[in-house]
Specification:
- The chain has 495 residues and is of the alpha+beta class.
- It has a domain of 226 residues: Transferase(Phosphotransferase), domain 1, CATH 1.10.510.
- A five-stranded antiparallel beta sheet has the order 2-3-4-6-5.
- A hairpin with a 5-residue loop joins strand 9 and strand 10.
- The longest helix is centred in the middle third of the chain and has 20 residues.
- The radius of gyration is 23 Å and the shape is globular.
- Bound molecules: zinc ion.
- Zinc ion binds next to loops.
- It is found in: Cytoplasm; Nucleus.
- GO terms for molecular function: ATP binding; MAP kinase activity; metal ion binding.
- It comes from Chanos chanos (Milkfish).
- Its EC number is 2.7.11.24.
- This is Mitogen-activated protein kinase.
Length: 495
């Protein structure tokens, strides 16, 4: 079996469809697992997968019958439920079969594009070191100007900084060429099977269990990001990657930045996809905080319940009108940071009473508890909106927490006598993300040197370095790929 696998890998390495190659003449002396073997096995409650990278997640509508059901009034701490090993249905995922086995047909798929983020193109590719499918993100136009240089370096450093199961991080960065030829950066991340947008628009049933475990993971990841001082600024279903086991990871940090503590410093309003954009951003506030991400989560929560976009407007003004249709005309105090024109627009219009009761009509899953949490997220005034960590304490998420830590997480483990739970279910970052390096970047050339050095140092002592295989047919397509709106946004002021 192993020999066959090696042969397959050798063959696949010679196939021109493979984008990545080993750097120089180095041969793979180590073929470690890209995914730890602990990811395979008995902990998934939600299986029935389709092939890796397909547009369907194969989400099962059947909840695992052996997973413990949290009764009403369940204590917050899952250990108090008897520490069941849970999990039940033990079906390994096709994408995470051990390296000693022949790659599945899905793993033999040729390299192909799978997505276009705010800044960059993502491909599904084969890692020639172990034959696994991984995601390869090309960050284009890096050295166009100082703004894009800083933005890409920020995203790169963030991807290497993240250590959280619900936040996508860099597994590797491809070896850059000599600095004179250094134009693009390629980052390898874990390949996820789908995203929440595709799940929502698919005909697959979404149970309350699904919604709870998704929402729990979104907030768990956001709490980590916010504790590191990072605002994502583009939380939307398409940026929430999911696997068929319902594991969720926040991705695409092309618009992310660190929090600005000084309220007099202006921040850009060119953030967040319109449907998920918080009212303070729509109203031209020049300073905002992590509450904008929570607003987006509220919109996604409602979308999960109703299977349709909550505020689907044609323009930012109509977007604001749809919000006030639901929440009612905000008081003046909630518009303190709004620009004059936006405030005048609200005051000019008719006085609207709130109509939050329509949220109960989203679906049968819109229970009193669900709507209560939703209404704490969809608060017009950002200062009064619930925080990520407070939202995690809401009783609605108890079952999601239980489900996640009983059969999905990496932080708890099972022993014959039961489940050993972690001490902190929603850990914050161990330190804030530092962005002080940005101030020292004064020119594109200096930025190029900094990024080149960063990648080279990041790789030291790690696995056999990879580089792009310029002979591959796929590469010729890949090299031409650019993000559809990168040029539109990248020239704008970042902050
Ligand atoms: Zn856990």
């Amino acid at each position: 079996m192993l020999a066959t696998n090696r042969q397959n890998l050798l063959q696949s390495r010679e196939q021109p469809c493979n984008i990545m190659a080993f750097h120089g003449s180095i041969r793979p002396t180590v073929c470690g697992n890209l995914f730890p073997s602990s990811e395979v096995g008995h902990k998934y409650f939600c299986v029935n997968t389709t092939t890796t990278g397909s547009t369907s997640t194969g989400l099962s509508a059947t909840p695992n019958p052996s997973a413990p059901n949290a009764p009403t009034g369940t204590p917050r701490h899952p250990t108090s439920l008897g520490g069941s090993t849970g999990g039940g249905a033990a079906v390994p995922q096709p994408h995470s079969s051990p390296a000693s086995e022949v790659p599945s047909p899905a793993e033999m798929e040729p390299d192909r594009p799978i997505g276009y983020g705010a800044f960059g193109v993502v491909w599904s590719v084969t890692d020639p070191r172990d034959g696994r499918k991984v995601a390869l993100k090309k960050m284009p136009n890096v050295f166009q100007n100082l703004v894009s240089c800083k933005r890409v370096f920020r995203e790169l450093r963030m991807l290497c900084f993240f250590k959280h199961d619900n936040v996508l991080s860099a597994l590797d960065i491809l070896q850059p060429p000599q600095i004179d030829c250094f134009e693009e950066i390629y980052v390898i991340t874990e390949l996820m099977q789908s995203d929440l947008h595709k799940v929502i628009v698919s005909p697959q049933p979404l149970t309350t269990d699904h919604i709870k475990v998704f929402l729990y993971q979104i907030l768990r990841g956001l709490k980590y990001l916010h504790s590191a001082g990072i605002l994502h600024r583009d939380i939307k279903p398409g940026n929430l990657l999911v696997n068929s086991n319902c594991l969720l990871k926040i991705c695409d940090f092309g618009l992310a930045r660190v929090e600005e503590p000084d309220p007099s410093r202006h921040m850009t309003q060119e953030v967040v996809t319109q449907y998920y954009r918080a009212p303070e951003v729509l109203m031209g506030s020049r300073h905002y905080d992590s509450a904008i991400d929570i607003w987006s989560v509220g919109c996604i929560f409602a979308e999960l319940l109703g299977r349709r976009i909550l505020f689907q407007a044609q323009s930012p003004i109509q977007q604001l009108d749809l919000i006030t249709d639901l929440l009612g005309t905000p008081p003046l105090s909630a518009m303190a940071s709004a620009c004059e024109g936006a405030r005048a627009h609200i005051l000019r219009g008719p006085h609207k009473p709130p109509s939050l009761s329509v949220l109960y009509m989203l679906s049968d899953g819109a229970t009193h508890e669900a709507v209560h949490l939703l209404c704490r997220m969809l608060v017009f005034d950002p200062a009064k909106r619930i925080s990520g960590s407070d939202a995690l304490s809401h009783p609605y998420l108890d079952e999601g927490r239980l489900r996640y830590h009983t059969c999905m997480c990496q932080c708890c483990y099972s022993v014959p006598s039961g489940r050993v739970y972690t001490r902190d279910f929603e850990p914050p970052a161990d330190r804030p993300f530092s962005h002080s390096y940005e101030d020292s970047m004064l020119s594109v050339w200096q930025g190029k040197e900094l990024i080149h050095r960063f990648i080279t140092e990041h790789q030291q002592g790690k696995r056999v370095p990879l580089c792009i295989n310029p002979q591959s047919a796929a590469f010729k397509t890949f090299i031409r790929s650019t993000a559809w709106h990168s040029s539109k946004v990248s020239r704008k002021e970042e902050r």
